[in-house]
Every structure is written in C-alpha cells, then in structure tokens.
Amino acid sequence: MIEARKTSGALTRGDSVSINGACQTTISKNGTKFAVLAIPETLRRTNFGELRTGSRVNLELPLRLSDRLGGHFVTGHIDTKVRLLEIAKKKESMEWWMEWPKEFAGLVVEKGSIALDGVSLTVAGLGVGRFKVALIPHTLKATTLGERRAGDFLNVEFDFLGKYAQRLAGGGRRLSSRKKRGKK
Q: Are 155 and 117 in contact (CB under 8 A)?
C-alpha cells in the first residue's frame, strides 16, 4: 500500500496514477492509502524493484483536458531505467550526468525533453555514453530527486515525439514480419 494523504483523495479503484513516472492502475484504496499491481514488464523497466517500505516516490495524477500544460507530454510509459553517474553542485543548481543506453541514443538530444522519475526535464548536455540534466533547487525540493545519490537508478521516459520521429525516419524498432508458410 502507498500512503498518499493528498493524492489518494482524488483516486478511486481503476484510476491511473503515476508513480516515479510509471503509469499504474489503482486496484484498491483504503483511506489515505492505495495499491497498484506492477506486472513483470513494469518491474523489468523501472526502479520499482529497488523500492522498500518507507521509500518516498513521486506521485502525479493524470492530466485533465482543462489543465494548464507546462513542460512536455509525459505519458507514464517508462522506456528503461538509467543510472545517475555524477552529481555536480553549481552556484544555484545541480548538474547530473546520467548513463546513456546505446539502444536509446537517438532519442536523447541537447535541449530536448526527457522525464526522470516522472519529472519533465531538459537535456542540458551530451557526452560519450551519457547525458546531462540541470536541476533547480525548487525541483530538488518539490520532488524526490533531491534525495538521489550517484549510483541510483531512475526511471526514464524519452520524449514520445522523438520516438515517433525516429520510427518514421526508419531508426525505430520494427515489427517482426511473418514468413508465409510453404513459400520460399
């Protein structure tokens, strides 16, 4: 069960809720607590397996059509998890260097959008096998990102517009075609 005094009030059974950026379905609710069921695919792609009783998570309710939109579209469909490699404290911010999974390299562009644990961020730089994001004090305080340390894994959702562009350009994953039986 997830204790969520603010968020649980808006949830009923069957509602979607984002947990560390991963869209989940509420399967039960009891007062200020609710439960979800993470299937093996979700556990494989996310940092959920690292969560323990008492772990803090980022929670977000789905966007309503009447809501103001800031940042970029974050769907809750996690692509993979990435390791936080390095944290550099700057005068008024923090810079994080994250690993760059080779199979997703075409989806990370400087000044492009990326979501880490459900938080919409901008890619601030690129390096060999890694990318950088910059975080302001408000983001670090208002989310669980301020609790992260080098070596931690974060859920990542790449910009879905970039995924479609890559697919249309021929660089995305292709559906496997079936060979017709009995014909060469």
A: yes
Report whether 115 contacts 122 (CB < 8 A).
no
| Residue 53 tokens, joined | 């009783």
Find the angle CA(28)-CA(30)-CA(34) to the nearest 5 degrees. Answer: 50
Q: Dmax over Cα atoms in the chain, in whole Å?
A: 68
The two three-digit tokens of residue 95, written as one number = 């810079």
Check: CB of residue 96 under 8 Å from CB of residue 133: yes
Taking only the tens place, the pLDDT of each residue in 105-123 is 889 999 999 999 999 999 9
Q: Which domains does the chain have, with CATH numbers?
A: 2-60 (2.40.30.20), 80-168 (2.40.30.20)
For residue 66, pLDDT over 60 is answered with yes
Confidence (pLDDT) at 177: 47
The pTM of the full predicted model, rounded to 2 decimals, is 0.86
Q: Measured between alpha carbons, how far is 93 from 139 in angstroms, rounded to an integer?
A: 10
